[in-house]
Each structure stands twice: as C-alpha cells, then as structure tokens.
Amino acid sequence: FVVTLASVAGVNAATLTLGPRSVQEVVVKSVFTDQGGWSLLSGVCFARLDSPRTSLAQGPVVVEAHLSAQLGAPMSGSCVGSAFDSKVVVSGKLVGAGTTLTLTDIRSDRVDDEATRSAVELLQSVAPTSLPPFDLLAAIRAQKPKVDDLPIDVDKLHIDEVTTTDTAVTVRFDFSLRGP
Q: Is residue 114 helix, strand or coil?
C-alpha cells in the first residue's frame, strides 16, 4: 500500500491507497479469523465461509468464498436438516468511521448452486449486514513507523473518506504524530 502525507494550515492529511492484494489481506485478517474462515452461524447447525478471494469494483468490495453449512434444527447433539456446499459471491461498501474501516450493506450477488440460494437467503436474515471492523490506527501503530530512524507514534487518526475503484481503495484521513 501507499501512504501520502501532507500538512496544510495545521491540518494533517494523509491518503492511504490499498491495492487489491492489500484489500485481500485486510479482509482475511479482520473477518476470516477462525482458522481462515468466518462463522456465520455456530453450533451443530452451522454456516461458514472460507477460502475468500476479494476483488474491487466501482464502489463495492466483492468477496468470493466457499460456503459450507448444515442448516436445520438441533436435535440430540446433531443438526437435522440439509447440508450445503457452494461457492458464493457477496459484496458490500467499504466505509470509514473514526479509526476503523468496515464492509457494510453486505448482499449476496451470486450462488453457484441453486439449491443453496434459499439457504443463503435464510442466512442473510440472521447474519450481520456488516463485517467486523478493521482498526486502521492499530494497523499503522503495529508497523512502528520511523522518520530518519527515529520512532514516531500516531496519536490520533480520523478517517474522512473512503472511495473504491476497480484498482484500489483510497482512504483519506487526518492524523497527529508524536516523536521522542
């Protein structure tokens, strides 16, 4: 990713540009945290997405993943119902608030297996409409930024705007730094 910094009239402004590979890493590290998967429903009856691949479109971030699910009613320690196994494509809008980025307004765009479509519609009624947030401030702090080999601390960060194109996600934010 690329960070551009500028200070104009006492306002610190920065632009962070995330290419497709960085967006993939952000989504995997913030959402697919359960051994490479994301549990939409846990227990003997379950639904899980894994093997995510992200792509960018003019506006949404697109996530293609593998859905495995056993949906029905829990009885005697097992799930009485139907098993599903299919590739699905979901998308959402990447928005910023405070120090975090979140994929919101998630919707199902495609399900490869027609029998799974009704299960996905059911899951959409119980699954969250946004993904867990990614804390940009924590990620920048974890990089332990330096200027001329002197460590600097990012004291504050506030995301102003997030835009998504076919090739990158651009995050504009204000920040404040502190040195030793």
A: helix
Residues 60 and 92 sit within 8 Å (Cβ to Cβ): yes
Sign of CA dihedral 158, 25, 164, 54: negative
The Cα–Cα gap between 57 and 70 comes to: 31
Q: Which two tokens stand for residue 27?
A: 């989504």
Q: Which two tokens stand for residue 168?
A: 């990158």
- Are 47 and 34 in contact by the 8 Å Cβ rule? The answer is no
Identify residue 32 by its one-letter amino acid code. F
The string of pLDDT tens digits covering residues 31-75 is 888 888 988 888 999 989 999 999 998 889 999 999 999 988 999
Tokens of 10: 């006492």
For 160, half-sphere exposure in the C-beta direction (CA atoms, 13 angstrom radius) is 10
Residue keyed to tokens 């990012």: 154
Lowest mean pLDDT among 49-63, 117-131, 150-164: 117-131
Structure pTM?
0.79
Name the one residue in this structure whose structure tokens are 């949906």: 71
What DSSP character marks residue 137? H
Report which DSSP code applies to 132. P
